[in-house]
Amino acid sequence: MSSEEPQEEEFSIHWIRDVVNRVLERDVDTYIISSGKSPSGSIHIGIVRELIICDVIKRELKRMGKKARTVFVVDDFDPLRSLPPSTSLPLETWIGVPYSDIPDEFGCCDSFGDHWANELIETFPAFGVDPDIVWAHKLYETPEMIDVVRTCLRETKTIRKIMVEFVAGDFEEEQSEEYTTSMKDWYPASVVCPECGRLQSGVKGQISPNRITGYNPKTDIVTFECKACGTSGEFPLTEVRVKLVWRVDWPAKWYVLGVTCEPAGKDHAVKGGSYDTGLEVSRRVFKWPGPVKVAYEWVRIGGRDMSTSEGIVFTPRSWMEIAPPELYRYLMLKTDLSRAINIQPDRIPELIDEYERFERVYYGIEDATDDKRELARLLYPLCVTGPLRKEYIPKLSFRFAVMTSQTVDLLGMPAVVSRCEHVLKKQYGLEVVPPEAKALIQARLNMARNWALEFGSESDRIEITDRVPKEVIESLTADDRRFLSAMLSVLEGDELDDETLQSQVFEQARKAGLKEKRAFAVMYRVLTSRKYGPRLGSFLNLLGYDWVAERIRSVL
Ligand SMILES: [Zn+2]
Ligand SMILES: [Zn+2]
Asked: How many percent of the chain have pLDDT more than 90?
């Protein structure tokens, strides 16, 4: 580990108490903790940091006897600006159309928006979050939301002033004047064109929205012009689909849903950004304070920012394939909100080790200082994804699972699972392996194998060929053969534990006059396609004496 990487002992969990205290200052009956995301393609795991922040605030409030709920808003009424790289949908057909109106190219969901949102939502139980789902396109159909849109149209002058203050605040004088002039006839909402179904036209960078061009508060009639197909006209507000501009849409949803707190990534939470604009709209238009703002830094992958539109995506499901979701919660919770979290998939085994030591400290079966025990007492219950268990479930070491999982093809799953149970029994002094622990074995083997194949280094991957290659047999010296014969005798004797077997390798190498390094290389090359591999004592036990003996005989 290099010096700039966070040390594993470094915890910064005060943020949880600080945020909860700020939320508690609000005097409400039920605390609504909200988050949201536009379903513009495969949604990366960064949003799960936000979902976990919400979940932890809710868990803490409930622990204090308060009523609290989490909400996840799917912003599927947003218009399409670009398509994910792998799609087959033609951009020109669907550009500017709300995600909820675009078909699902995979045919499994009601819309494009549904599909990508569902891909994320299906992982919620695994990550231990259970927000109520709000679909923005449906929210916009409710009388409450239509009423809020009406309020915004009536208060357009106030909103224009806020926009000028917030957006043009840092502009040079000339630019500021230009912006102020352009806002003179501006309305904070666009219309879904009844002819072509678009909210706007143009791709990223040159977007022209189908902005409302006038509103009559007495008749409740809006005028608009479609920039895509030229349709224009007057419509009663209740007969067209209207969407507020982002900086007003957000506070409108806060208001309708009664949001007490919402975390936001640094892009939105920046000073004077859309969050602050939204809070100002909340105060001056909706006459309430708006939610408690909680800013957090992004999650990065392998040192890069993730981006749905650029295809740099690591999804929650990809995580579940290689690591337990509890570990993700742990990484998010132990890090201050102001710090970026860099996911390094190649470090997963170390991180799992670290988390599982922490877990054993919580259950009092691993030595630790009082401070660490206290930390585990506070944090562990917030890391679990299901009910908090009274007793520790013994787990196979992930490192062991990495090696073991790759022998499944050779030995078969039942034999491997039975070997794993044997290891667990010895490690934890168990008479029998409890059913919960048994259930975890196979899941862990699959996870470890996925990790080894996708992110493991060469030394993490084992390949076992059907036969020992000819060139390996030909390269064996007389000393090598003497050593292998001696190992054969060891394997024909009584079964030894991993450590004793390991020391036998050293012992027999010495007797055969072979350097240790050579002895191990010979053993690995006879067993696998490489000169190195997992710890021999446990590896030989895993493969089974019969199989290894047969293998050695085949080269002598
Ligand atoms: Zn689908
Ligand atoms: Zn149109």
From this structure: 80
Q: Where are the domains of the chain?
A: 1-172+245-385, 189-244, 393-461, 465-556
Cβ neighbors of 182 (< 8 A, separation 6 or more) are: none
| Chain position carrying tokens 């190195």 | 532
Residue 35 near residue 268, CB atoms below 8 Å: no
Using the mean position of ligand 1's atoms as its centre, give its distance from the Cα of residue 113 in Å: 9
**Distance (Å, whole) CA 521 – CA 543:** 17
Region 499-508: what's the mean pLDDT? 94
Quote the ligand 1 centre to 99 CA distance (angstroms). 13
Tell which residue, 232, 237, 195, 189, has the closest CA to residue 211.
189
> Token digits for 414?
């039942």
Q: pTM for the whole thing?
A: 0.92
Per residue in 115-146, pLDDT tens?
999 999 999 999 999 999 999 999 999 999 99
Q: How far, in Å, from the CA of 131 to the mean position of ligand 1?
A: 20
List the CATH code of the domain at 1-172+245-385.
Answer: 3.40.50.620
- Spell out the residues 6+ positions from residue 15 whose beta carbon is closer than 8 angstroms to its own: 336, 337
CATH architecture for the domain at 465-556: Orthogonal Bundle (1.10)
Ligand 1 centroid to residue 39 C-alpha, Å: 12
CA–CA dist 249, 544 (Å, integer): 64
Distance CA 453, CA 436 (A): 26
Determine contact, residues 96/202, Cβ cutoff 8 Å: yes
Ion ligand 1 nearby residues (CB, 5 A): 104, 106, 108-109, 115
Number of CB atoms found within 10 A of residue 460's CB: 19
DSSP 3-state of 169: coil
> Up-side HSE of residue 131: CA atoms within 13 Å toward CB?
32
